């Protein structure tokens, strides 16, 4: 039984003051039935985590806190970095790891991503491991090679028990922030491929891993994506910044 999961990745948007308003507005648009059906996560920038946590706890909101990145060491001389135990102390539950923007703009390697996955698991949080191909790889028919190798590298040395708790987000890079979405059939097919790859590596826990689709998810395309057997939810960028729009995505079946 995999519970649906919809994650808002706010990227480098929202001050801590904006974040307080955004999470409050979002919570007002969701009810118990929504939370029963979908785990809702917001991932604000680091500077807004503490204030968002405070609102969630004070108002007992059923929204979970996510972070967008972390370092693999617990502490040390890593100027500008934030560790997994620091996030855990802020009641962060989910950490996005290996987002394509981190890989492409900040040069994160598969090895870095694997170290981060381990650090997040060691701090007792859930990694959201992001994978996906570029437009060139898509055109060359290399999508499965790329995604398969990113999954194998990301999960290297992770036990089946730990793997079973994880989330993997398939985000084709050509669909991120472009308004182009993979068709529901293509996205569903890739989600199946992600699950089969995990099953090859780790056995039956492949059925427990939650697989998300990301890339220009909107209220108008979420229902078609969620209808696919292997898609358990979405990683939403731009459309998560507006609480009304994000709430419509969470309430896709209404
Ligand atoms: P958009 O929804 O803005 O395309 O971003 C997707 C994404 O990168 C989520 O992590």
Describe this structure in words.
The protein is α/β, with parallel strands linked by helices and 254 residues long. The protein has one domain (4-250): TIM Barrel, CATH 3.20.20.70. The protein has twelve helices and eight strands. Helix 1 crosses helix 12 and helix 8 crosses helix 10 (184-202). The model has no long low-confidence stretch (mean pLDDT 97). The site of 1,3-dihydroxyacetonephosphate (13P) has 14 residues, from strand 8.
Uncertain parts: none
Q: Could you estimate the helical fraction of the residues in percent?
A: 40-55%
Helix count from the secondary structure assignment = 12
The name of the CATH architecture is Alpha-Beta Barrel
What value does the average pLDDT take? Answer: 97
Features:
single chain; about 250 residues; alpha/beta; TIM Barrel; 8-stranded parallel beta barrel; 12 helices; 8 strands; globular; binds 1,3-dihydroxyacetonephosphate
């Amino acid at each position: 039984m995999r519970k649906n999961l919809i994650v808002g990745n706010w990227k480098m948007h929202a001050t801590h003051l904006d974040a307080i308003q955004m999470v409050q507005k979002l919570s007002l648009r969701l009810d118990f039935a929504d939370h029963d059906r979908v785990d809702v996560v917001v991932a604000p920038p680091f500077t807004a985590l503490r204030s968002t946590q405070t609102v969630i706890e004070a108002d007992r909101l059923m929204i979970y806190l996510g972070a967008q990145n972390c370092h693999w060491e617990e502490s040390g001389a890593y100027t500008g970095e934030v560790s997994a135990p620091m996030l855990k102390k802020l009641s962060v539950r989910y950490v996005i790891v290996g987002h394509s923007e981190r890989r492409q703009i900040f040069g994160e390697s598969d090895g870095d991503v694997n170290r981060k996955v381990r650090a997040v698991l060691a701090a007792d949080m859930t990694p959201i491991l992001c994978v996906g191909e570029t437009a060139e790889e898509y055109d060359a028919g290399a999508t499965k090679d790329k995604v398969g190798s990113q999954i194998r590298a990301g999960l290297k040395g992770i036990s089946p028990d730990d793997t079973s708790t994880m989330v993997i987000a398939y985000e084709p890079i050509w669909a991120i922030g472009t308004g182009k979405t993979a068709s529901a059939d293509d996205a569903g097919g890739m989600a199946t491929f992600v699950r089969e790859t995990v099953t090859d590596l780790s056995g039956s826990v492949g059925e427990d891993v939650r697989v998300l689709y990301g890339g220009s998810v909107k209220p108008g395309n979420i229902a078609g994506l969620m209808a696919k057997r292997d898609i358990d939810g979405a990683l939403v960028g731009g459309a998560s910044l507006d609480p009304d729009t994000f709430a419509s995505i969470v309430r896709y079946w209404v």
